[in-house]
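Hey L., structure's done. Input below.
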Amino acid sequence: MQKNAAIAAFTWMFGVLAPSTGWGQDVPLGLPLVAIPADNPQSPEKIALGRALFTDKRLSADGTISCARCHQPERAFTDGLRVARGIREQEGTRNTPSVLNPAYSTTQFWDGRRKSLEEQANDPFVNPLEHGLDSPTRILEVVTTDAEYARQFREVFGVAGEDVTMEHVIKSIASFERSLLTGDSPFDRYFYGGNKDALPADAVRGLEIFRGRGKCAACHAIRADSATFADNQFHSLGVGYKRIESRLAKIAEYVAKANGKEISEAVLNQSDVSELGRFVVTLQPSDIGRFKTPSLRNIAITAPYMHDGSVKTLEEAVDLEVYYRSIEGSRPLILTPHEKADLLAFLKSLTSPQYTGATPSK
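Output:
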């Protein structure tokens, strides 16, 4: 019953898939076309299977955690917590990123340590602080003994029983995540739809600041035909760096000597390692403290912010970004209270229609 309720919530949030992309889903206004991997084509049936797996609590060590625990559809696929919580309410070190529009990200996770949704989908299952499984065996036991899963895997992949592998599971989840597209916000209707009444005057002024003097669009890109509001690059705002500065050499040395599996786990259960950001992937000193640019879509309802969830409100996030732009440009960026209010009004205009009833950040 719980699994059916969770699936119903997804259907309510995203509706019935409509034909236009070749795999049964419209691309919302304001978004570019989705690139589909040749070895994992989309289909409505595969997306439905991935959705069921995404919401299934049985795929965790104690039967209490599903992917949807942290990525809640009503919260724009975040959880509203400072950092994510896994089995036995264990806290990680990273704020839960939204998995809306993940198809446009060229890397996954805050540090970009996985290159695709397919690579990313396996990690939470075997991380001790997330789903907590020692191995994928439990997952395969569930999907091969559940009659509905057996039917779905036969329909989607033509496999059954021992022929079902984790690759099939992971591809299904990745396909579902790739289908999570959200656009058609007031900004999109104004900027791409030609509806000049879609934005109030303060949000229009905020858009001008965003694209102009504020230089926000340098990282949160707006193109002529679409806007993902992310540049797929890694930047440092100095968040959390001071805490590890005196021990930086020792922490970096540990990371340099560790193997990939050890680092993946350490990122989520060792806050010192987490603060190194992109460095855990590249081992380049210049990448210390750099984190992936998050999309700003639905930003008004996805507080708290930053990789560690240390920024509680959108207003604080704007102040931090203004300070960063000042440092980066080697000259003060000064916004009046009215200009900051306009910028906030613009950011709130990036909320898609299925989330307009959600509680915004304060």
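The beta strands are 234-235, 291-292. Residues 99 and 274 are 20 Å apart (CA to CA).

-- N.
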